[in-house]
Amino acid sequence: MVRLLLLVMIIVSVACKKHDGKHAVEAIAKPEVKENGDLIVFLDQHQTEQFEVVLTKKENVTARFSAPAHVMATVVQSADNVAQNLILFDDADLSYNYASYLQHLVLINQWKINIARVKDLLAHGAATGKDLIEAQTQLANEEAVIIEHETKLKLGGFDPVALRGAKAKTVWVLCNVPENQVDKVREGNKCTVHFNSFPNEVMSARVEAVGDMVDAITRMVKVRIILSNPDSRIKAGMYATVDFGVAEGKFISVPHTSIVTVGGKSYVFVKISEREYRRKLVVLGQNADDSAMVISGLTEGEQVVKSGTMQLKGLSFGY
Length: 319
Known about the structure:
By secondary structure, this protein is an alpha+beta fold. It has helices at 2-27, 92-123, 129-155, 160-164, 309-317; strands spanning 32-34, 39-41, 52-55, 58-76, 86-89, 170-178, 190-195, 203-210, 220-228, 239-255, 260-262, 265-271, 276-288, 291-296, 303-307. It is built from five helices and 15 strands. The chain has a six-stranded antiparallel β-barrel. The longest helix is centred in the middle third of the chain and has 32 residues, at 92-123. The chain is elongated, with a radius of gyration of 35 Å.
């Protein structure tokens, strides 16, 4: 009797262990990865509780990016010539080219006046055709020289005409904007400037001009920023950072935590049912605060995973 009771207890114990083992296997069932990693199916809905999603919709998006900059020139009032303010450049070559530009501009005006005088004398027989040709040649030479100085000023990011008409206590900041960002910057756009010398201040500024050339080596475009310097604290040569806020229009945007990058391509995971998640290739635009614009790859109303993304990445790509 005792032996029979002991045998029954052993059989019950083994049966319980098999039963418990079956449940343990079911509890840790691995998700199924299908379609070369594009589709992930969880066998247990409890395994999906860690994945939070955000519903996609089109909204007005403002992209933001920053560019390093420095003060290239300040304008101060001249004590000797009230009609022409002084431009203090950070670059000696720009100072030379601007001074030469002004000098040749005066000479051009003088030769234009001289040509008009020679023409008048020629009409009255007091000058010869040779005199007129010589005067016209001198004018042409001066115009050729001034073009060279104008070109160098423009390559440095400055418009000679704007320099001549600059008001006192004006500051020009130059920054280099990447070629792939420059189409977002428009003349007249507002921006903000943070100077290293004044770390606790943010100054309002305006985009005055966008350069006409892309640097062949750096692939950068010069952008000239103008701002006021009422207390003359800002000096030529100071370093700064320019922050641009550019209205992009209506786009879908997703949190940065939703995006995974593999092989130079960007992906997100979309919840398509209670236990199914699909990987989608997306093309991203500018960063917009704590999210990124999606140019293509998503439509409105999709549920994009915003937390737990890295686990889905591991399942989808096999690591």
